[in-house]
Design brief:
Length: 214
């Protein structure tokens, strides 16, 4: 090693102790391009610019990295749903505001699926339980996960007397399954060829049906 080489600064990931986040960011980019199957340790370390063995300081195996990337992708989804709500114009009444916030949850969910299909697939590459859906690290800016944002919107409908209180329990699963099913059809199913305008209209029709159903 030459004197000049010895004076080169160390990587920021090491100096700031941020290698874990650098690997998650690398994993997110891999997921964006190729979904959960693309998130592998060697590719993530290569993208982060570190030696392959460096990953094992923070992730025991590929599944551990994929889980962290999945949670980060879920947080991206939550922020997209929050952003959709943030674009809502001021309304003159509680009823209109509650409806708009509920609809924005579904609209943001579908928009994320269409704009970021790789991240959307990765966000839901999870164990078959609700633990991941309620994890703090899968939360958006306001500290709520996508599932919690949906729950808050449904609570708003109850408060606005648009949803009877006795029909509130379990309403998340009706709304979630309907919107998620359409998202899957749009990105991986027979509806993937729809024009964006048609896809948006289909989403609004599904949300209309959910409103009527609950």
């Amino acid at each position: 090693m030459t004197a000049a080489e010895s004076k080169k600064p160390k990587r920021d990931t090491y100096r700031h102790g941020d290698l874990r986040n650098a690997l998650i960011e690398a994993g997110l980019e891999l997921a964006r391009q190729g979904g959960p199957a693309a998130v592998v340790l060697r590719a993530a370390t290569r993208q982060a610019g570190v030696a392959p063995n460096a990953a094992y300081r923070h992730f025991t195996d590929r599944n551990a990295l994929l889980h962290a990337v999945s949670q980060a992708a879920m947080a991206h989804l939550a922020r997209t749903m929050e952003a959709e709500q943030a674009t809502l114009p001021p309304t003159s009444g509680t009823t209109a505001a509650a409806r708009a916030r509920f609809r924005a949850v579904g609209t943001g969910y579908l928009r994320f699926a269409q704009e970021e299909p790789g991240l959307f697939r990765t966000a839901f590459h999870v164990p078959d339980d609700m633990t991941h859906a309620a994890a703090d690290t899968a939360a958006g800016t306001a500290g709520k996960t996508p599932f919690e944002l949906l729950g808050a919107a449904l609570d708003g409908l109850v408060e606005a007397e648009l949803l009877p209180e006795d029909r509130r329990p379990g309403a998340e699963f009706l709304a979630w399954s309907a919107v998620h099913g359409l998202a899957a059809l749009l990105i991986d199913g027979p509806l993937r060829g729809l024009h964006p305008t048609q896809a948006h209209d289909a989403g609004q029709h599904v949300i209309d049906m959910i409103e009527r159903g609950i």
